[in-house]
Write a structure and sequence with these properties.
It is built from nine helices and seven strands, in the order H-E-H-E-E-E-E-H-E-H-H-E-H-H-H-H. The chain has 250 residues and is an alpha+beta fold. Helix 1 packs across helix 4 and helix 4 crosses helix 5.
Amino acid sequence: ERSWYEFFMDVLMEDGVMKRLDLAINDKTGILNIPHLTEKCRNEECISVFRSFKSYRSGELVRSGEKECMGNTLYIGSLQSEVYFCIYEKDYEQYKKHDIPIADAEVKNRFEIRLKNERADNAVYDLVSNENPEQTAFGIINRYVRFVDKESGKPREEWPLNPVWETFIGKHRNMLKLTTAPEPYTLERTLNWFSHQVAPTAKMLMLIDEKCGTSHVQDILDNTELRDKHRKIIQQKMRTVNEMIKMEDN
């Protein structure tokens, strides 16, 4: 019954290794037109850190209204790399797997961010630090890819952002780099995690101890051993305090 944040923090505190992490954004309105995005890739209207893309249509023909269609999938980036995107028609997948009519599917398309190894580690650090999956997911997308509209007379880097893509990505999005790991074990991040995930339970247990005359919380604390990473945080804090004292003395 842990939250994702609790699970990730537990893994980090145990020196766990993140081998794979997928972040998914469900498009319920059909704003992501995958054939159109694929065409923009072919027309060099996709500006990206990635050097490759791949698209395909698979499965049986499905009659949707007056036309026949197939499931479309667009991969941006190499499937062998530590980060790539997969955009596919979720409604078609649901039809194939569960025989749900395409028109009745709740989710039309899905944008998946697929991360491995160091990139997965860094994304988890950001999730634990900020507890804002929207910021993390769209920050990654905005760092690696953007769709633009070709404008003659201007260099490719200055082509305006495609309005539909701007609606999807949101205006003024920050970029999240996944190549340099932020420091996960700082006092500030630990306090943030404690405040959101531990403090309510700790307060409940302390109130029970107070009302029942027990000492469960203190007993647990007395028998808890600190690890090296915890001692490092203490050392970092004490070093900062000592430096401040020296500055005041000077």
